Protein backbone atom coordinates (compact mmCIF):
# COMPACT_ATOMS: atom_id res chain seq x y z
CA UNK A 1 0.00 0.00 0.00
CA UNK A 2 2.82 2.35 0.83
CA UNK A 3 4.49 1.54 -2.46
CA UNK A 4 1.25 2.23 -4.30
CA UNK A 5 0.87 5.56 -2.51
CA UNK A 6 4.38 6.63 -3.45
CA UNK A 7 3.89 5.55 -7.05
CA UNK A 8 0.61 7.45 -7.34
CA UNK A 9 2.15 10.58 -5.88
CA UNK A 10 5.02 10.37 -8.31
CA UNK A 11 2.64 9.89 -11.21
CA UNK A 12 0.76 13.07 -10.33
CA UNK A 13 3.81 15.12 -9.41
CA UNK A 14 4.47 18.05 -11.75
CA UNK A 15 6.99 17.18 -14.42
CA UNK A 16 10.11 19.27 -14.52
CA UNK A 17 10.97 20.65 -17.93
CA UNK A 18 13.99 19.03 -19.53
CA UNK A 19 16.91 21.47 -19.70
CA UNK A 20 17.50 23.16 -23.02
CA UNK A 21 20.63 22.00 -24.85
CA UNK A 22 23.64 24.25 -24.58
CA UNK A 23 24.34 26.53 -27.55
CA UNK A 24 26.48 25.04 -30.28
CA UNK A 25 29.20 27.62 -29.53
CA UNK A 26 29.52 30.08 -26.69
CA UNK A 27 32.43 32.34 -25.75
CA UNK A 28 33.01 34.92 -23.01
CA UNK A 29 35.93 37.33 -23.36
CA UNK A 30 37.94 34.69 -25.20
CA UNK A 31 41.43 36.10 -25.76
CA UNK A 32 44.72 35.10 -27.30
CA UNK A 33 48.10 36.81 -27.08
CA UNK A 34 51.37 35.93 -28.76
CA UNK A 35 53.86 37.78 -26.63
CA UNK A 36 52.97 41.47 -26.94
CA UNK A 37 50.74 40.84 -29.96
CA UNK A 38 47.00 40.68 -29.28
CA UNK A 39 45.49 38.23 -31.78
CA UNK A 40 42.07 38.12 -30.11
CA UNK A 41 41.11 40.83 -27.64
CA UNK A 42 38.02 39.40 -25.98
CA UNK A 43 35.51 37.52 -28.12
CA UNK A 44 31.99 37.16 -26.71
CA UNK A 45 29.31 35.53 -28.84
CA UNK A 46 26.67 32.80 -28.88
CA UNK A 47 25.89 30.51 -31.80
CA UNK A 48 22.55 28.66 -31.40
CA UNK A 49 22.24 25.06 -32.55
CA UNK A 50 20.90 24.29 -35.99
CA UNK A 51 21.78 27.65 -37.55
CA UNK A 52 24.13 28.81 -40.27
CA UNK A 53 26.32 31.41 -38.58
CA UNK A 54 28.49 33.80 -40.58
CA UNK A 55 31.74 34.96 -38.98
CA UNK A 56 32.96 38.06 -40.77
CA UNK A 57 35.71 40.60 -40.44
CA UNK A 58 38.62 42.25 -42.26
CA UNK A 59 42.02 40.59 -42.53
CA UNK A 60 43.73 40.63 -39.17
CA UNK A 61 40.47 40.84 -37.22
CA UNK A 62 41.19 37.60 -35.33
CA UNK A 63 38.88 35.24 -37.23
CA UNK A 64 41.45 32.51 -37.85
CA UNK A 65 42.68 32.73 -34.27
CA UNK A 66 39.12 32.37 -32.99
CA UNK A 67 38.53 29.26 -35.11
CA UNK A 68 41.79 27.69 -33.88
CA UNK A 69 40.77 28.30 -30.28
CA UNK A 70 37.28 26.86 -30.80
CA UNK A 71 38.75 23.75 -32.42
CA UNK A 72 41.29 23.26 -29.65
CA UNK A 73 44.21 23.85 -32.02
CA UNK A 74 45.49 26.73 -29.86
CA UNK A 75 45.22 27.59 -26.17
CA UNK A 76 43.42 30.70 -25.01
CA UNK A 77 45.26 33.16 -22.79
CA UNK A 78 42.06 34.57 -21.33
CA UNK A 79 38.33 34.07 -21.13
CA UNK A 80 36.47 30.84 -21.73
CA UNK A 81 34.42 29.05 -24.36
CA UNK A 82 32.30 25.98 -24.99
CA UNK A 83 31.49 23.93 -28.06
CA UNK A 84 28.50 21.57 -27.84
CA UNK A 85 28.33 22.20 -24.11
CA UNK A 86 31.91 21.09 -23.44
CA UNK A 87 34.99 23.24 -22.78
CA UNK A 88 36.87 24.07 -25.97
CA UNK A 89 39.40 21.36 -26.76
CA UNK A 90 37.32 18.56 -25.18
CA UNK A 91 38.18 15.39 -27.11
CA UNK A 92 34.66 13.93 -27.04
CA UNK A 93 33.21 17.16 -28.42
CA UNK A 94 35.89 17.33 -31.11
CA UNK A 95 34.69 13.98 -32.48
CA UNK A 96 31.36 15.69 -33.28
CA UNK A 97 32.98 18.57 -35.21
CA UNK A 98 33.80 18.82 -38.90
CA UNK A 99 36.37 21.27 -40.21
CA UNK A 100 37.30 22.57 -43.66
CA UNK A 101 40.39 24.81 -43.35
CA UNK A 102 41.06 27.56 -45.85
CA UNK A 103 44.43 26.10 -46.85
CA UNK A 104 44.81 22.34 -47.04
CA UNK A 105 46.56 19.82 -49.23
CA UNK A 106 46.22 16.08 -49.66
CA UNK A 107 48.91 13.78 -51.01
CA UNK A 108 48.68 13.91 -54.78
CA UNK A 109 49.20 10.15 -55.22
CA UNK A 110 46.19 9.23 -53.09
CA UNK A 111 42.80 8.57 -54.63
CA UNK A 112 39.80 10.49 -53.30
CA UNK A 113 38.35 7.42 -51.58
CA UNK A 114 41.73 6.74 -49.98
CA UNK A 115 41.83 10.27 -48.56
CA UNK A 116 38.35 9.80 -47.12
CA UNK A 117 39.25 6.35 -45.81
CA UNK A 118 42.27 7.68 -43.94
CA UNK A 119 40.25 10.47 -42.37
CA UNK A 120 37.44 8.08 -41.48
CA UNK A 121 39.95 5.99 -39.56
CA UNK A 122 41.44 9.05 -37.85
CA UNK A 123 37.94 10.15 -36.87
CA UNK A 124 37.27 6.76 -35.29
CA UNK A 125 34.30 5.89 -37.49
CA UNK A 126 33.22 2.25 -37.14
CA UNK A 127 35.03 0.09 -39.70
CA UNK A 128 31.86 -1.66 -40.88
CA UNK A 129 30.22 1.61 -41.91
CA UNK A 130 33.15 3.50 -43.43
CA UNK A 131 32.56 2.54 -47.06
CA UNK A 132 28.92 3.55 -46.86
CA UNK A 133 29.85 6.86 -45.22
CA UNK A 134 32.51 7.58 -47.86
CA UNK A 135 30.07 7.00 -50.71
CA UNK A 136 27.47 9.21 -49.02
CA UNK A 137 29.78 12.24 -48.72
CA UNK A 138 31.18 11.74 -52.23
CA UNK A 139 27.64 11.89 -53.58
CA UNK A 140 26.82 14.92 -51.43
CA UNK A 141 29.73 16.97 -52.83
CA UNK A 142 29.36 15.71 -56.40
CA UNK A 143 32.51 13.55 -56.64
CA UNK A 144 31.06 10.05 -56.90
CA UNK A 145 32.39 9.52 -60.43
CA UNK A 146 35.84 10.84 -59.48
CA UNK A 147 36.24 8.89 -56.25
CA UNK A 148 38.83 6.54 -57.77
CA UNK A 149 40.91 9.35 -59.34
CA UNK A 150 44.16 10.56 -57.83
CA UNK A 151 44.03 13.89 -56.04
CA UNK A 152 46.91 15.21 -58.15
CA UNK A 153 44.59 15.22 -61.18
CA UNK A 154 41.93 17.30 -59.43
CA UNK A 155 41.25 20.94 -60.24
CA UNK A 156 41.20 23.46 -57.39
CA UNK A 157 37.43 23.29 -57.32
CA UNK A 158 37.43 19.50 -57.09
CA UNK A 159 40.01 19.60 -54.29
CA UNK A 160 37.75 22.05 -52.46
CA UNK A 161 34.86 19.61 -52.85
CA UNK A 162 37.03 16.79 -51.50
CA UNK A 163 38.00 18.91 -48.48
CA UNK A 164 34.33 19.57 -47.87
CA UNK A 165 33.62 15.82 -48.06
CA UNK A 166 36.29 15.19 -45.41
CA UNK A 167 34.66 17.79 -43.14
CA UNK A 168 31.28 16.05 -43.47
CA UNK A 169 32.42 12.54 -42.53
CA UNK A 170 30.44 11.09 -39.63
CA UNK A 171 27.59 13.63 -39.82
CA UNK A 172 29.17 16.17 -37.44
CA UNK A 173 26.94 18.32 -35.25
CA UNK A 174 29.03 21.45 -35.84
CA UNK A 175 30.83 22.13 -39.12
CA UNK A 176 33.46 24.86 -39.40
CA UNK A 177 33.86 26.04 -43.00
CA UNK A 178 36.72 28.45 -43.71
CA UNK A 179 36.26 30.02 -47.16
CA UNK A 180 34.44 26.95 -48.58
CA UNK A 181 33.67 28.56 -51.95
CA UNK A 182 36.98 30.35 -52.58
CA UNK A 183 38.09 28.08 -55.46
CA UNK A 184 34.68 27.31 -56.94
CA UNK A 185 32.93 28.58 -60.05
CA UNK A 186 29.30 29.83 -59.83
CA UNK A 187 27.92 26.30 -60.25
CA UNK A 188 30.20 25.02 -57.49
CA UNK A 189 29.19 27.87 -55.18
CA UNK A 190 25.53 27.05 -55.77
CA UNK A 191 26.26 23.41 -54.91
CA UNK A 192 27.95 24.43 -51.66
CA UNK A 193 24.96 26.58 -50.74
CA UNK A 194 22.79 23.52 -51.26
CA UNK A 195 25.07 21.44 -49.01
CA UNK A 196 24.96 24.09 -46.29
CA UNK A 197 21.16 24.15 -46.43
CA UNK A 198 21.15 20.34 -46.25
CA UNK A 199 23.28 20.48 -43.09
CA UNK A 200 20.89 22.97 -41.51
CA UNK A 201 17.88 20.80 -42.42
CA UNK A 202 19.38 17.82 -40.58
CA UNK A 203 20.00 19.98 -37.52
CA UNK A 204 23.72 20.65 -37.82
CA UNK A 205 25.27 24.01 -36.97
CA UNK A 206 27.44 25.60 -39.67
CA UNK A 207 30.09 28.14 -38.68
CA UNK A 208 30.94 29.92 -41.92
CA UNK A 209 33.96 32.14 -42.35
CA UNK A 210 33.97 33.79 -45.78
CA UNK A 211 35.02 36.98 -47.56
CA UNK A 212 32.27 36.45 -50.15
CA UNK A 213 29.62 38.50 -48.39
CA UNK A 214 27.03 37.81 -51.06
CA UNK A 215 27.33 34.09 -50.32
CA UNK A 216 27.02 34.73 -46.59
CA UNK A 217 23.92 36.84 -47.11
CA UNK A 218 22.27 34.03 -49.08
CA UNK A 219 22.74 31.19 -46.62
CA UNK A 220 23.30 32.54 -43.10
CA UNK A 221 20.65 32.89 -40.42
CA UNK A 222 22.83 35.05 -38.18
CA UNK A 223 26.19 36.78 -38.50
CA UNK A 224 28.83 38.26 -36.25
CA UNK A 225 31.11 41.02 -37.54
CA UNK A 226 34.48 41.10 -35.82
CA UNK A 227 37.08 43.83 -35.79
CA UNK A 228 40.25 44.03 -33.72
CA UNK A 229 39.38 40.80 -31.98
CA UNK A 230 35.95 41.87 -30.74
CA UNK A 231 32.39 41.45 -31.99
CA UNK A 232 31.11 44.85 -33.14
CA UNK A 233 27.74 43.60 -34.43
CA UNK A 234 25.84 40.33 -34.11
CA UNK A 235 22.33 39.22 -34.92
CA UNK A 236 19.93 37.85 -37.53
CA UNK A 237 20.64 38.90 -41.11
CA UNK A 238 17.35 40.81 -41.42
CA UNK A 239 18.06 42.86 -38.29
CA UNK A 240 21.58 43.75 -39.36
CA UNK A 241 20.55 44.77 -42.86
CA UNK A 242 17.80 47.00 -41.56
CA UNK A 243 14.59 48.18 -43.16
CA UNK A 244 13.58 47.39 -46.71
CA UNK A 245 12.97 50.13 -49.26
CA UNK A 246 11.08 50.57 -52.52
CA UNK A 247 12.00 52.76 -55.51
CA UNK A 248 9.35 53.26 -58.17
CA UNK A 249 9.71 55.27 -61.37
CA UNK A 250 6.27 56.55 -62.30
CA UNK A 251 4.99 59.22 -64.70
CA UNK A 252 1.60 60.89 -65.07
CA UNK A 253 1.22 61.74 -61.37
CA UNK A 254 0.69 65.21 -59.95
CA UNK A 255 2.01 66.38 -56.60
CA UNK A 256 -1.22 65.45 -54.83
CA UNK A 257 -1.05 61.92 -56.15
CA UNK A 258 2.55 61.57 -55.06
CA UNK A 259 1.98 62.90 -51.57
CA UNK A 260 -0.75 60.32 -51.03
CA UNK A 261 1.86 57.57 -51.12
CA UNK A 262 3.25 58.77 -47.79
CA UNK A 263 0.66 56.52 -46.15
CA UNK A 264 2.83 53.55 -47.13
CA UNK A 265 5.87 54.99 -45.32
CA UNK A 266 8.31 57.92 -45.34
CA UNK A 267 8.39 59.21 -48.94
CA UNK A 268 11.19 60.84 -50.93
CA UNK A 269 10.51 62.27 -54.41
CA UNK A 270 13.31 62.80 -56.95
CA UNK A 271 11.90 63.61 -60.37
CA UNK A 272 9.95 60.59 -61.56
CA UNK A 273 11.36 58.39 -58.79
CA UNK A 274 9.44 57.74 -55.58
CA UNK A 275 11.36 56.12 -52.71
CA UNK A 276 9.58 54.71 -49.67
CA UNK A 277 11.72 53.60 -46.73
CA UNK A 278 10.99 51.68 -44.59
CA UNK A 279 8.31 49.60 -46.22
CA UNK A 280 6.84 46.17 -45.63
CA UNK A 281 7.41 43.86 -48.67
CA UNK A 282 3.79 42.71 -48.75
CA UNK A 283 2.47 46.22 -49.55
CA UNK A 284 4.56 46.63 -52.73
CA UNK A 285 1.75 45.35 -55.04
CA UNK A 286 -0.65 47.81 -53.37
CA UNK A 287 1.73 50.70 -54.10
CA UNK A 288 1.87 49.76 -57.78
CA UNK A 289 -1.90 49.31 -57.96
CA UNK A 290 -2.43 52.73 -56.37
CA UNK A 291 -0.21 54.41 -58.97
CA UNK A 292 -2.12 52.77 -61.82
CA UNK A 293 -5.48 53.65 -60.26
CA UNK A 294 -4.39 57.30 -60.08
CA UNK A 295 -3.69 57.28 -63.84
CA UNK A 296 0.07 56.94 -63.54
CA UNK A 297 2.37 54.72 -65.58
CA UNK A 298 4.89 52.48 -63.82
CA UNK A 299 8.27 52.19 -65.59
CA UNK A 300 10.36 50.46 -62.91
CA UNK A 301 9.89 48.84 -59.51
CA UNK A 302 13.02 48.28 -57.42
CA UNK A 303 12.55 46.71 -53.98
CA UNK A 304 15.77 46.81 -52.02
CA UNK A 305 17.68 47.32 -48.83
CA UNK A 306 21.29 47.64 -47.78
CA UNK A 307 23.46 44.69 -48.71
CA UNK A 308 25.58 42.86 -46.17
CA UNK A 309 28.63 44.43 -47.80
CA UNK A 310 27.14 47.91 -47.30
CA UNK A 311 26.47 47.16 -43.64
CA UNK A 312 29.87 45.56 -43.16
CA UNK A 313 31.76 48.55 -44.57
CA UNK A 314 29.63 51.04 -42.64
CA UNK A 315 30.29 49.28 -39.33
CA UNK A 316 34.02 49.11 -39.96
CA UNK A 317 34.12 52.79 -40.93
CA UNK A 318 32.44 53.76 -37.66
CA UNK A 319 34.68 51.42 -35.67
CA UNK A 320 37.89 52.71 -37.22
CA UNK A 321 37.06 56.43 -37.39
CA UNK A 322 39.19 58.49 -34.97
CA UNK A 323 37.41 59.86 -31.90
CA UNK A 324 36.41 63.51 -32.12
CA UNK A 325 38.17 65.96 -29.88
CA UNK A 326 35.95 67.43 -27.16
CA UNK A 327 35.13 71.09 -27.61
CA UNK A 328 36.77 73.43 -25.10
Please outline the major beta sheet: 6 strands, mixed
The count of β-strands is 14
Task: Give me the strand/helix succession.
Answer: HEEEHEEHEHHHEHEHEEHEHEEHEH
Average of pLDDT: 84
Q: Specify Rg, calculated over alpha carbons.
A: 26 Å
Strand order of the largest sheet: 6-7-8-3-9-10
Shape: globular
Unreliably modeled segments: 1-13
Structural class per helix/strand content? Answer: alpha/beta
Helix percent band = 25-40%
Number of helices: 12
Euclidean distance between termini CA atoms: 86 Å
Strand content: 25-35%
Topology:
Layout: H1 2-12, E1 25-34, E2 37-47, E3 52-56, H2 63-71, E4 78-83, E5 86-87, H3 91-94, E6 97-100, H4 112-122, H5 130-141, H6 156-167, E7 174-178, H7 186-201, E8 205-209, H8 213-219, E9 222-227, E10 230-236, H9 237-241, E11 245-251, H10 255-259, E12 267-270, E13 273-276, H11 284-293, E14 297-304, H12 308-320
Parallel strand pairs: 3-8, 3-9, 6-7, 7-8
Antiparallel strand pairs: 1-2, 1-4, 4-5, 9-10, 11-13, 11-14, 12-13
Summarize the structure.
By secondary structure, the protein is an alpha/beta fold.
Describe this structure in words.
With 328 residues, the protein is of the alpha/beta class. The chain contains twelve helices and 14 strands. It has a six-stranded mixed β-sheet with strand order 6-7-8-3-9-10, with helices on both faces. Strands 2-1-4-5 form a four-stranded antiparallel β-sheet. A four-stranded antiparallel β-sheet has the order 12-13-11-14, covered by helices on one side. The N and C termini lie far apart (86 Å). The model is unreliable at 1-13 (pLDDT under 50).
Amino acid sequence: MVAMTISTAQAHAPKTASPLPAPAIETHDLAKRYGDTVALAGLTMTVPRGEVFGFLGPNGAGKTTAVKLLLGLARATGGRGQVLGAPIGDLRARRRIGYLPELFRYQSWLRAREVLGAHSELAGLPAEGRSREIEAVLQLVGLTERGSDRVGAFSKGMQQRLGLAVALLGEPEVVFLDEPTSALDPVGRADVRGIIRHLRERGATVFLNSHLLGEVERVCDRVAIVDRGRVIAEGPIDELLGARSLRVRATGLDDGDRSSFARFGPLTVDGDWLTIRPIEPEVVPEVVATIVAAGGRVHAVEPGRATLEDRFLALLQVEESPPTEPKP
